[in-house]
Every structure is written in structure tokens, then in C-alpha cells.
Amino acid sequence: MSSPPFRIHTISHIPHEDLGVIQHWLKDKKHKVTFTRTYQTDHFPDLNTLDWIIVLGGPMSVQETHLYPWLTKEKHFIEACIRARKKVLGICLGAQLIGEVLGGRVTKNPYREIGWFKVERCLSPLHPLATIFPSQFEAFHWHSDTFEIPLSTLPLAKSEACQNQGFLYQDQTIALQFHCEVTLTNVQSWIEQGEEEWRQKGPYIQSPEEMVRDLTRFDRTREIMHQLLDYFSR
At 195, which helix (H) or strand (E)? Predict the structure, then answer.
């Protein structure tokens, strides 16, 4: 039996970081989607008007409230959604915001991580999410910050460059440092917009050529993301 349409509110922080393959899933399932684009407005909706929120990434740090005053308001909104037991999915910056809201510190990671790198699942093979996340898989990364795993959450994944790559809270909030939502177009846009970052030296920074070389990577992460969204729907 298919799930009823959900009211899903998306928070985006920069124009070139969008829903990617999540948009395909939303359209196929006919869910209602609304947006807060923080580069245009700091208005967040009433909790009674939504079932889920999806919090996307961005280049800013969670501490940069002096540069981005809307960050404070967004943190309060995310916290309210979690307390109201709405479904909450955070990706990259979104995951870091969730981590801070739940009491974990967000700091600089030892390494900047940009490109396709292996992620190792931390969950028990008996956990339902283990059927979605393989024991090891390649995912796309573009970050320099990291979060602590908050108390009362379940660590989800790690990578060689970044010890904390995700966590689960009360089976209704999922934070992912890595990107399974990206399309080739997303990555090409990030390469164009983020030249200053990928030109830096580092053991976990790939060349633009390597980032777009193997298109099957996008197929595999799309499958993971769509299965995760299906899990959230149940």
C-alpha cells in the first residue's frame, strides 16, 4: 500500500544546492513540497502545516550567526520540529545544524573532504537501516566541518577522513554529513562555484575530472537516497 501524500518543507541555503534526486522521488510520490530559501527569506512555517522537513547543505558554518542572522531562527525551527516528532532529514550543513540542536559540538574536521570517498556503516546489521546502507559504499562529500555524535543518538556511518558521518535520533531524525542526493548537474555546479575549495591541497580532495568520471556512482547513491526516503515514509 502506498503512503498518503506528505507535506514536506525544504530549507535551502544557497541557490546552487538543491534537492537533486530527492526532487525526483517527491514528484513520483506526489508529495506537497514547500520551501524556505534562507538567501531570500527567514520565514519558517507553522509546524501544523507540515509533516517532514529536509534541511540541505551550504558553505556557511553553524556558528556564523553574525554573518547569517537567520541561522539562529533556523536552529529554533529545527529544534521545534524534532520536539514535535516531525520527520527531519539533514544533509551536510543540515546535519551539522541538527547535531548542534541536539547538543553536539560542530568544529573544523581535521581534513577537508571533497569528492567520492568510501563510507563505512556503523549500525548493526540487524538495524532496519542496514538494508539501505551497505557495510561500505562510496558517497559524495563536500565539507570542512564535522559534528559530534549527540547523546541519545545512534551513530550511522564514518569515513577515513571524517569519524562522524551520520546519526539517527528516535527513528525520526536522520543526519547525513555525506551527499546521496547529488546529480551530475549538482556536482558540476558545485565544482564551478567552489573552485577556491577544490584547488586547495589535501589528501581527501579530488580533481573535478575524478568527481565526474564514473556516472554509476550517481546511480548507486540515488538508490540509497530513494530507499531512505521510502523508509521515512513508513
Answer: helix 195-198
- Percentage of the chain beyond pLDDT 90 is 97
Query: Is 81 noted as a catalytic residue in this protein?
Result: no
DSSP 8-state code for residue 221: H
- Residue 185 belongs to some domain of the structure: yes
Residue 127 is a catalytic residue: no
Whether residue 141 lies in the annotated active site: no
Extended beta strands in the chain, E state: 7-12, 32-37, 52-55, 87-91, 106-121, 136-147, 154-159, 166-169, 173-176
* Residue of 97, 22, 111 whose CA lies nearest to 6: 22
Angstrom CA distances, 206 to 81, 212, 228, stand at: 36, 10, 27
Catalytic: which of 92, 122, 162, 180?
A: 92
Give the CATH number for residue 35.
Answer: 3.40.50.880
**Is 181 inside a domain boundary?**
yes
Grid cell, residue 104, equals 553536539
Q: Are 149 and 104 in contact (CB under 8 A)?
A: yes
Cβ neighbours of 122 (radius 10 Å):
19
Residue 126, domain extent: 7-233
- The catalytic residue among 17, 100, 113, 181 is 181
Specify if 223 maps to a domain.
Answer: yes
Set 9, 13, 143, 179: catalytic member: 179
Query: pTM for the complete prediction?
Result: 0.96
| Per-residue pLDDT tens digits for 123-160 | 999 999 999 999 999 999 999 999 999 999 999 999 99
**CB-CB contact of 133 with 212 (8 Å):** no
